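Bug #77: duplicate submission created two jobs. Keeping one. Sequence:
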Amino acid sequence: MPEPEGVIHQLYMERQLPPKVAEVARTQGEDPDRTSLMIEELRDMIYEKGECIPHRIDDDYLIKFLRARFWNVHHAYNLMVRYYAFRESNPEFYENVNPMALRSLGDDDIISISPYRDQEGRRVICFKFGKWRPSKIPIVDLFRATMLLLEVGSLEPQSQVLGGIGIMDLEGLTLNHAWNLTPAVAQKMLALLATSMPLRTSQIHIVNQGWVFDTAFQIFKPLLTDKMRQRLFFHGTDRASLHKYIDPEALPERYGGTKPEYPYTYWLEHLSRDEKVVDELQQLGYVSEPLLED
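Kept job's structure:
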C-alpha cells in the first residue's frame, strides 16, 4: 500500500538524536562524556546482582533502560529486573505470538498509532476501548498488542528520550467492558504503561468517559502512585482541554485535530517488511511466519 503524502509509517532508529531531542536528553542526564561509563556501570550491576538474565547487554540495548529512568543507573537496573519479571510472569503476551495475528485490533479500530508526532516529537497511541468486543477478541490480545507497540517504540532513540502519549477513548464503554477489568488486569495494565517497560508513557489522556469509567476507575485508584496520577488527564468531550496538551496538528479529526487516522494494521504491514524490526522482535520471542489465508 503506497504511503499518502506526508505520512511515514516507519521507525527512525538512527543512533544520532535530532538536535532538539539531544538537548532534551541532556536535561535528562544524558552526558556524552559519561555515557560509556554509565553503560558499563549498569552492565556490571547486572553481572554482580544476578537478579535477571537479559537476552542482550550490548550498549544500544542498555541505553534504552537508562534513558527510561533518566540515566539513574540503579533505577534503570530495577526497571530491567521488573521488565524481565513481567515477561517471565506473562509469556503468553509475546511467546510465539505472531504480530500479524493481531490485525483484528486494527480492523475493529480498537487501537491506532499516529504516523505523526506531537509538538514535542512524541508518538501518540489511541485506545478505543468502547469498540472492543470481549466475546470476539480476548483481553490477552489487548495486552499482546500494547506490549508489542511498546517494544517497537522502545527501538527508536527519539522515543526513548521523549516517551509516548496515550489517548484512552472511552466512548461506548459498557458494564460488559468493566466486568473484564479485574484488579489483576489493572495491575498488568499499569505494569505495561508505567512500571515495567523500557519506554516512558509521558501522559495518558482520558476522553469521552462516562459513569461506567467512574465505576471501573475505582479499581485503579489504590494502585496509582503520585507520579502516575500526575500523568493522567481527564477531558470528557472537551476538545479544547485536550488541545492544551496535544496540538491539533498531531491529532485525528475525531479529537478536533486536522489529520486523517490510520489503523494499527497499517503499522503492522510496514514494520513486517523492516528486517531490523523483525529481527529485534524475534529475539524477544515473537514469530514472523506468514499467516495462512482462510
